[in-house]
């Protein structure tokens, strides 16, 4: 009889690896934050005894969901501007507000709000891109969620840095800060080809190489972006990135709605990963990422929510559903992106994109105990013929009951154990007051200047 | 001081009529199942006293959602066959199972499961099409939800009837049964042009005229349907329906993913209503309903979930979000189907399609108290800048707290007041056992016959 920290008896377990497998009446044993057993309940009874034991007979355990692209702190801007196209949304709404309100405190409170929402949605790991990444990393570490924090690089001044060289220098500092952290990793995060110069892109790429970390960038989000680049540089952004040495297996290409066949071949050959954000792309009318084409050539495609200002939620379970439905609709093939593939995109493929699939992304012995439990004993999930179908097509994130990250029970019967939800709500309301005042002031100034 | 049955003080009220209006700190007064007051909380205190008073300070009240196309009883088949195209799904999976298990008891239990799910999703009215419509109507009446029950017509035998003449004769009986019911109405419901002959279509149309009720039909769901009709009849289904006299203001055209410009003009001229089912169309890869084109010529477009076997939920709030996102993505215009329009599609337009917009579909004095309350005091809905944005883009149906139909409180702090949820769950599990046995038997027979 082996003594373990935690033993979970579950109705069903979907491990993601091996593929297309659903274990019924199985248990997971956890020791020192890692999975040490996955076996039938009937055998677990005699093989393991848990310091803590959970019985979740109507629940399914899946690998914790991975949000492969977000701007966590933007949760404080949820719903500030909707029904607008990307460039108008960015330039007339988001950037002016950000300029007026971004501080370390904003990033701390906004990231905490996002992390709380993500944990309640079954997310155990997120890939972030925002200002004050050191603060975002601190919040994630403090709450106990796994994160890859983007070391943002831009060519224009923000509250975080004044020019590319300062962003790059701060990137090095933040990389070092988290270098040995068990949960927090970093990625170079030049914002986009249209906001970062050749030199800074190259330096970011060299740092990614030197630190052995991913490089996370928005690319080919809209046709307008591609056309503007062709006009300005005489080449498409991906071609420019290729020339600068960024097209390689470290690259997480976010959005990628505009991909020609030669670009898809290039991505496949170089091992580029794609972060597909279907709901953000739909909402901002940015275009469609060609998911079936990507999977045909084995490009790793993961899922991201994007920030809450453009989605407007951080719901990876919902993103899975949208990705599956949208791929079917666009390809005119209802068998495209079946449920198991959608789940793999939201788990293992996210881990692969972040270079941490040896640690997380599936429920396998030796991997970190990053686990999400969903309760299927609700009207909305009955009857149960096919667990994978229920998970992807029928239920919502409100059915997430429990979440563990590295064995730590962060969501317990829907209660967050490492976040004070009342304090968080109060702070969010305070931010709302401040931001509404900023909006009113900006509207007044705009009215005066147009007089 | 006027005494009323119920007085609800709310944080916000979105009445849908007038358009684009959000009332803050307003109250609704209900007497004899109807709305008799809608006024600021501060005035309501001195004008009304309620026999029952509710204070919902963090809630928004909206008109109850209307599900303009569903097959309620198919909830018992949720997830039975996914990731398959429409005709294969229908012919090899759905129809054989239906043939083996449809009885009045199946329809009663399946409809009750669907109604329970819909009430918990904020739906106060649904437009159904299924077998044993008398049973579905009885269940809806017993629970207290508003419904339009489709009087189904087909050209082949089912458990409900053997040939068109019997379907039509039973249609008359069911029409009469509910003729004077306060909540239950009926619609003629010939299944689709490809399953109903000219004669039966014409007779159904004449009955709709005679009874003064809508006519509800699947039409132009896929390009395959249109092409097969062109081959068989030498004309497109809409042209055939037009020739047979069905294209008029009673018609609820479900799906309508294949519409040529002349067909859109015809619909606009004749006042045809469209039931758009975006998630079903995506999931079955059926095509895309051209919503922006329809709204440009003022065709009333409402929203439906379709049945739970092809969606796999009955979540009209989610359908609103998908309709708004999909229209933006397909039109490449992020301002297309803004939040207010999506909400109108899910409420007032549904009522117009069903010919009951004088009764329901908006929160106006004199209309029925069909009301849905959603609690926004959750992490997922904060901060609040724009209530309409939160409603359509950020939150899920789990935020629905209360539902009233004709003033009756059917969902109370998420508890169903007229359905025994434990009994319903137990029955659903029993149906699952029976249906799994049917599936196993059919698989065995198929294996034997292919040997």
TrEMBL record, chains A, B:
InterPro entries associated with the record: Amidohydro-rel (IPR006680), Deaminase_MtaD/DadD (IPR023512), Metal-dep_hydrolase_composite (IPR011059), Metal_Hydrolase (IPR032466), MTA/SAH_deaminase (IPR050287)
Positions with a binding annotation for substrate: 98, 191, 221, 306
UniProt keyword Hydrolase, yes or no: yes
Record key words, sorted: Hydrolase, Metal-binding, Zinc
Molecular function GO terms recorded: 5'-methylthioadenosine deaminase activity; metal ion binding; S-adenosylhomocysteine deaminase activity
Catalytic activity: S-methyl-5'-thioadenosine + H2O + H(+) = S-methyl-5'-thioinosine + NH4(+); S-adenosyl-L-homocysteine + H2O + H(+) = S-inosyl-L-homocysteine + NH4(+)
Keyword Hydrolase: yes
EC number(s) recorded for this UniProt protein: 3.5.4.28, 3.5.4.31
Pfam families referenced in this protein's UniProt entry, alphabetically: Amidohydro_1 (PF01979)
Residues noted as binding Zn(2+) in the record, renumbered to the chain: 69, 71, 218, 306
Obligatory cofactor(s): Zn(2+)
Family classification: Belongs to the metallo-dependent hydrolases superfamily. MTA/SAH deaminase family. Belongs to the metallo-dependent hydrolases superfamily. ATZ/TRZ family.
Record function comment: Catalyzes the deamination of 5-methylthioadenosine and S-adenosyl-L-homocysteine into 5-methylthioinosine and S-inosyl-L-homocysteine, respectively. Is also able to deaminate adenosine.
Protein's recorded name: 5-methylthioadenosine/S-adenosylhomocysteine deaminase
Species of provenance: Thioflexithrix psekupsensis
